[in-house]
User: Fold these one by one.
Assistant:
Number 1:
Amino acid sequence: MIYKPICVDAYGFTDESQTVVRIYTTKGGMITAKRCPTIKPLYCTRDGHFFSLSRFGLNEVKPCFAVPKNPKVCHTRYPFMRQFGNRTCHMLVALTWIGPRPEGYQCDHLNGDMLDWSADNLQWVTPAENCKRAKLLRVLRSIGRDPRKMSREELLEIFNKYEFTNPQNID
């Protein structure tokens, strides 16, 4: 994911609870952002841009790529938001746009690119499914197909084709 900053021209909330904000850019576009599950007011878009609301208005917050203070909370290889509780960017986007994490599930990057934390690239999967998908992505790369250039539908079709059956569910 190539991180291109967004210049905010104006913004407005869609309701009184301030959970959804419409951001109007200087280039004439409009983006919708939702409130992240953080203590401080943080909003994120579907493509992974973060905005902080302060008394000065809505400002874009860039992720931190430095080593976190507590490595047990956050892995060093993932971009994270230090000022919002050391939460990784992909987890904040997934919790905001996909929904709460089911018990025992992990957040998976469909195309295997850890720097692409857009909501279209994330999905909740079991740890076993996450490992299997990682192996399939390595095989795709070894035969010359770049998963980052494939569409979400193509990747899901490949994952479904090689889906394994859980022995515990067999009657």
Note: The longest strand covers residues 8-13.
Number 2:
Amino acid sequence: MLGIRKPTPVNSIIGPGMQVQGPCTFQGSLQIDGTVVGDVTSDGGTPGLLVIGENGVVRGAISAEHVVISGSVVGTVQARELLELQSKARVQGDVRYKSLEMQQGAVIAGQLQPQVTPPPAPAQPREPDAQPTSGADPRHEPTEPTLDLDRP
């Protein structure tokens, strides 16, 4: 961890030697030291902390505000706020995050996708009698997010 943080108490634990099959939804915080075969998701109403211990394994998608991985994940990872990858973390799947901390030794086999706000589209003058020639108006198409800071 880069800064000094107050440890967050863990509400629920899937202990070593325990295997859970099927989707898991949690509130508050969950620590996985066993195996989960299924998706793990924090309840959207409250901030959630998911900790996957060194011996923890998840085979499914995970989604929470704050995700700390020291073990193994096979599936997509979405950290809506912060993703921490400890040195023994192994992730096989795409990773989405707002903020990322990654220690030396952590491995990701997938795409890293930072969740950034797309830049505003440049204002274009509108012609009063112009009609779109195709079915979609190109001025209202979504733009891809970018990290290009030199873009106007």
Note: The CA atoms of residues 94 and 110 lie 5 Å apart.
Number 3:
Amino acid sequence: MILKVTALCVAVSMICSAIRVQRPELATAISLAAGLTALALAFGAAGDASGWMEALKRLLATEGDLTSTVVKGAGIAIVAELGSQLCMDAGESALAGRVSLASRVAMLGLCAPMLAELASLLGVSLPW
């Protein structure tokens, strides 16, 4: 799957580079179509990952709190990376940086309960 996505994106980027000089609007449309196709291919492979997560959850035999946190973290990372790359493609590197920063803050917030529980296990009281 990754080879297909990579080959598609490299080929389309070459085509778009050649077309962009004469028809920038056509290059944008082609790039968008290729991006959506690559995203569809990636989501097709996500089914394998969700099956793996279910198997891991059964193997660990936890109540699912950790598993749901990992899945939420992966979702934050994927959405933030996609948003950041879209901003970079649009030439807005400052906005891409803000998306990355927001994702880090969201992940820190997601991990805060785990850090508090770890601190309580170690006998350390946290100021919050």
Note: DSSP finds four helices and no strands in the chain.
